[in-house]
Specification:
68 residues; two-stranded antiparallel sheet; 6% strand
Length: 68
Amino acid sequence: MTRGKQKIDAQRRNAEKNQKSKGSQLEARAVGLKVICPICKVQLANEKQLIDHYGSKHPKEKPPSPSE
């Protein structure tokens, strides 16, 4: 068993380790993803990624205009 300062330090470290995280990476990812592919409903970060997505996943389709 630990005594004195070691015990206090161990309790502090355990309390910090057991705290819930301040935010989820999934929540942050959802905020950053703004553009949705109308065909397969995948979420993308910007228009350039949407154009690249259409080129690789939907080559026969024409990408939507940026105003949509």
